[in-house]
């Protein structure tokens, strides 16, 4: 079994079955081959909400470890970066092959991306059930 992807985080708030944490990219991220794909390479701080029945056991300011299984992390990368790229490229190529002008082809590609992210937004609850973050006290 592969090791999960882990980050040290600070609890921002906790309650109602949700713990909001702030992740800070560590120096280990600089050497990670997937740092740009996971999004930690482009920013030093990220905030995420983690649903857990033990939310009341955490307090603001507490340092915790947040983890996600590697296959779930790769699933998130797929939906957030790979599929939109394919949609963008597919719409652009299809519009160009249909004989549309450059401007119309570009607009169709942007429209395809907008539709994709709209669908992703509508299906967010379903996706949240597939990608599970775990939170542990240090």
UniProtKB/TrEMBL annotation:
This protein's UniProt keywords: Membrane, Transmembrane, Transmembrane helix
Cross-referenced InterPro entries: RseC (IPR026268), SigmaE_reg_RseC_MucC (IPR007359)
Entry coiled-coil feature ranges: none
Transmembrane spans: 78-98, 104-123
A Pfam family matched in the record: RseC_MucC
Protein name, as recorded: Fis family transcriptional regulator
Organism: Alistipes communis
Lineage, opening ranks: Bacteria, Pseudomonadati, Bacteroidota, Bacteroidia, Bacteroidales
